[in-house]
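Researcher: Quick one. two chains, 818 residues in total.
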Amino acid sequence: MASSSDSSTPRGESWVWFTGLGLIIGLGMVIGLLSLVIFNGVTVFWAPQVPVAQVDDGRTIIGQLAQRRIRAGSPADHPRYELQYQVGLRELNGNSYLWVDEAKIKSETFPADVLGLERVENGPAFVRPLSLRKTDGKLIAATDAAFETAFQAEVAAASAVREKLVEITRHRIGDVNEEMDKARVALRRAEDLKLADEVADRRRQIAGLEERFAGLQAEAKKVVDGGAVASLVSKDAAGREVVVPLTQVIRAWFPNRLDTWGRVQLFFSRLGEFIFDEPREANTEGGLMPAIFGTLVMTVFMSLMVTPFGVITAIYLREYAQNGPVLRIVRISVNNLAGVPSIVFGVFGLGFFVYVLGGSIDQLFFSDQLKYNNNTPVFGTGGLLWCSLTLALMTLPVVIVATEEALAAVPRGMREASLATGASKWQTIRDILLPASAPGILTGVILAMARGAGEVAPLMLVGVVKLAPTLPFDGSAPFLHMDRKFMHLGFHVYDLGFQSPDSDAARPMVFATTLLLIFLVVCLNIGAITIRNRLRARFKGASF
Amino acid sequence: MPQIMNPPSSSRIKVRPAAEREGRKDYITIKDYGFWYGQKKALDAISLDIPERQVVAFIGPSGCGKSTLLRNLNRMNDLVDGISHEGDITINGRSIYDPGLEVISLRRRVGMVFQKSNPFPKSIFENVVYALRVVGVRDRAVLEEACETSLRKAALWDEVKDRLDDSALGLSGGQMQRLCIARAIANRPEILLMDEPCSALDPIATGKIEELIHELKEQFTIVIVTHSMQQAARVSDRTAFFYLGKQIEYDTTEKIFMNPSQAQTEAYISGRFG
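Model:
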């Protein structure tokens, strides 16, 4: 007979479950958050069928279903739902989105001729086409068999024209404007210093630039006039006639006619636009290229700055500094630095980096610019450099602590062996300690990167903007413009989610952007972890 | 009485005639040497002379100060905080505490092999030539020659000559220890300190290293710390016995093992305490 005190369950076994519970809760939250973001972020690009719905009150709605939720105030046992449709045509409807009581929808049909349009302005539109007015004035009716082919061809032709226009107006005219600004500053300086020759030179240069500017404008006008003015005549749900010039159309699709392959193609086309294009319509449409690029460049620069600085500091603290109260205080301070709210670093960055450092740089190297260009600062305002530096400062403790740990973990024997062969302390550090602790140092850098890439608050103060007209990297010397303001994915999430004029339109983009930010951080980490594992493999061996 | 130890029976040991030993000059001279870790006195009044190109073994129970004394010969103990010493150690007539003598140049003349083999996480080649690299030798031919010479002296060349660029961490324990010896002799030091070099090795590897010590003796003065009486008897010309930081007896190995003058020494080597 087994006595109760002789139970086969060892004492303390229940604590295994208790500790496991913590892990399960943590994992559950992470997995839940990730699946929410991934599901909502990916479905943004998927084109579902678009119904034509008849409502009780006589209205007709053509729109893509966006949300379904329980109506406020409906009884809990018999919940009533309401549906949100994205109907588009903001210029006519006043709002792209529409809530309808589910119970009031009489019928839903999916006619094949429903056409979805993504437009340059005023967001998307869902219409039923009537006819296509081609460039030469010919009309093709929507019922014509040739309609779809002709329509897609005209859309493609119009896109080419639009891209050409963007090339002229944004890039070439932009370059001329930039040169003009520089020339004007130089002219003002020459006039002020009474350099007659240079004044004449600069005047001639400006006249030349103005000529080029006029030429480009004429070219742009010619493209607009001579190019396609094809347009689509269609009617909206209410039967109103809607004429859309095809230069306004970015993408057109028949949501109820597409087969799965077509939907997949559309999905990747939209995803490609999202990743490689610039944003439109107050960031609620278009792509995120500038933000992806900005985040990436800023994170890489931050790592490049924090690593040497942190490693050098840690080497001094661990290898050279005299043990004592001062060293202890320094260590405690470094650890506390990790707990300072990031916004405080932002304020410090603004006060010290931007105003003091940037201001001094401007005084020293760009004094002409300040004097003759209405005190426009170059480095004395937020920018990529200051963002990277601020985040480098913020993540410094992580790197210092990780490096110190890594140095301390190098076997004592290795250090002694090096010193015993007659190597100096510095040679030992450089040739033995640093290579052996490189994996540990990289762990610190990975942690720093993960923290830095997702940080938003301090960046808002030192150089991140809602919409940057130019990338920090371009074809004009010195190619990398560390003084420029830039866009950042984390800030983009905040801006879309909370600052957008059209929160319904921004909602899907918030998820997609969040997903992209997570993906970017994961990619950066995988890169760093790969390097670390390579290093580790080099130092691993069959030790007896 | 030497009922336990019977060293002369081994053919490997050549007991040199006293006259020959007398002809050698003393190379390392330790005089009234005392040493403290903080408040704790680890060595007390040590005085012994080590002749050149001989093997001297330090024996004694754990904590007797033999390793401490060995590590002071190349000032490895400088790494420890709060140390102090009295008396003096001279090598070839010059004090190792001479302010004009740099610790680095001292360590270049006094190589060291540690108890636990500690190869660097580098290739075998880079491990051996490390001491040459730190003095700035860049010439590949010189490095390669030094590498081969040292590995040959360390009896490791034939085993690793085809994989010099492989990681040293892939070697066996005995090979690693011989690699450490090769590394220690690569820049031709005058003295080789060995701190229990065989304590982590199997008997075959131990045998190889002991043979090696015999050969290296032709060129280097060797000081070896060992816990193995047999090893001390086999490899050394002279033996010093330490107990509780004091030097109990220092004489030829023959004398120490056959006819020790101190009762403590006899008790230790016969295994009655320690």
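The longest helix of chain B spans residues 140-153.
Researcher: Thanks, that's what I needed.
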